[in-house]
Amino acid sequence: MGLLLITSQVFFMIDSINCRGYKLRFNRTLIMGILNVTPDSFYDGGCYDKVELAVEQAKRMRSDGADIIDVGGESTRPGSKPVSAEEEIKRVKPVLELLVEEVDAPISIDTYKPTVAEKALSLGAHMINDVTGLSNPDMRRVAASYNAPVVIMHMKGTPRNMQDNPVYVDVVSEIKIFLEERVSLALKDGVNDIIIDPGIGFGKTLEHNITILRRLQDFKSIGYPLLVGPSRKSFIGALTGLPVHDRLEGTLAAVSIAVMNGADIVRVHDVKACRRVIQVVDAVRRKTL
Description:
The chain is an alpha/beta fold. It has 9 helices and 12 strands. The protein has helices at 51-64, 85-102, 114-122, 137-145, 171-188, 206-214, 234-240, 248-260, 271-285; strands at residues 2-6, 9-13, 16-19, 22-25, 30-36, 68-72, 107-110, 127-130, 150-153, 194-197, 227-228, 265-268.
């Protein structure tokens, strides 16, 4: 455990977590590389829906500096429709089987379905990234039984309706309360290694997302590593007027702000560019010279 000083209060901060054979250390900002094996994800849908292409991309991201590979078999873009657990497993199973053998890095399964998470962990995946914040108690049971780390993310509504006029009185305070409650439930159910994520773009307006980035330090008092995922999202498009495939510079700006304001992990598509940016920001924030 490390110490983190914010204003006049001292908080205990976890400086590493166990990841089923790996150890994630937070002496520098870590990168989670996004690998969507879906036909309809908002940026790379259909790009890696063939096993060999997905594995090649995972290896490329690892070479470019990814510390974690996050594999998703269902799009959670705004307006997306859910797929069955059977279909999701069909998409991720052959990819996971190869990744755990051929990529020397923790493999995360991006799912909110306990049956998918359990299958992935049984195949050798190392952690769970749940956009519903472990809302299903069976997901907490699965994570605890496999001693797997979890990412607890905040989302207002569901992917299909989350952008239908989301309203908060105080977006940061409300997300913080949600995360604290879900962390408490996870600990009670035997989940030991936890990462929190305020859920940029998941049931938030442009103003909400900007406020979250500006006030990221508020989440540090929860006492767990903080993940932020701004990569190529619509708030960047709203600010720049640019389509998803032309949002790299905006993403790099958002990543820089997130890291400077306390992010311990960033979840991104463009690993090489983000790694180069983070090296500079970490030198300032964490004094990693």
